[in-house]
């Protein structure tokens, strides 16, 4: 059992799980806009997520805090390097405009992690903006990039789907922030710190309304049923979220929501 727990912890700590969630959202985008499977685009996002998330999670740990590097962190560093090489490989299989936009998303991620401005903390520590930066990066990587690479014009449907994707990620992050309430620095002014856990849950429930409405606008019974399942699933995760929950509640189960969405689209 301990061995299996170590495998699960490595799977989560190395950002493979969150990368699979991003990959799943790319596949959902392919479905929504009837895009033929684009391996370069999907795997670019998958490996890019591993690199980006591991950079965000472990940069300060190694560069600033000078923590000793254990065996797991060394393996994660090797995995991240291999992922970086693969990101470079798939990058050159994307269209030029996609490459330019992806660099912009990378710069936002770097801004989120590194203090570019003198006497200022990185964007991750700017009060109240963390949740918006993360949600926008996810929308950019999992929805905007695939459409640009497929040369699909930005119609009203595109902007509606952007709202839906932003709401999904925003709500998922709200659950994370509820569980991290006891550990987050008060100056971050996360949503639960600002308005409290109860109002944060009400906000999450309210945001699921536009998510559901977008499903109705699709006029597709299959997608409508799946969106209803998604709304119920998200409501349950919000309802039972509290700061005393295990880390696996968010790092595994909540981050699995996009994967469930993709699997439902594929097999239901």
Automatic annotation (TrEMBL):
Keyword Lyase: no
Keywords: Membrane, Transmembrane, Transmembrane helix
Regions that span the bilayer: 12-34, 40-56, 68-91, 97-117, 129-148, 154-179, 200-218, 224-241, 248-265
PROSITE patterns linked: PROKAR_LIPOPROTEIN
Keyword Transmembrane helix (UniProt): yes
Protein name: Prenyltransferase
Organism of origin: Flavobacterium frigidimaris
Taxonomic classification: Bacteria, Pseudomonadati, Bacteroidota, Flavobacteriia, Flavobacteriales
